[in-house]
Design goal:
The chain is mostly helical. The protein is built from 4 helices and no strands. Helix 2 (about 40-60) runs antiparallel to helix 3. The longest helix has 22 residues, at about 40-60.
């Protein structure tokens, strides 16, 4: 598959991904233009990065993949929220699940 990057979480081999991302950000083909328009989006991006940092650290420390997945899914959710792919119902479910609202 053209443009595919091979990684192995089992073998802790993320070199291909790091190299591909590094190439993207040093390439002349990309013109960097910030697209995050408010503090909320910047905060979500920061949370996603923290989630990914925790996942990387957990992998380096040999933590079970099921536990690493939690941080990766959290990062994914934060990024989806920036892109507007989280629906209002999802947010309400999260609020009512995690907080005692209306009681």
């Amino acid at each position: 598959m053209d443009g595919a990057v091979s990684i192995s979480a089992l073998n802790k081999d993320l070199g291909g991904l790091s190299e591909a991302l590094g190439h993207l950000f040093t390439s002349d083909q990309i013109v960097w233009q910030p697209r995050l328009s408010n503090e909320r989006q910047l905060g979500l991006l920061s949370q996603a990065r923290q989630d990914m940092d925790r996942a990387r650290e957990a992998m380096e420390n040999g933590i079970e993949p099921d536990l690493i997945e939690i941080d990766l899914l959290s990062a994914h959710d934060h990024l989806k929220e920036i892109l507007g792919e989280v629906h209002r119902e999802d947010l309400l479910d999260t609020l009512f699940t995690n907080f005692c609202l209306g009681k």
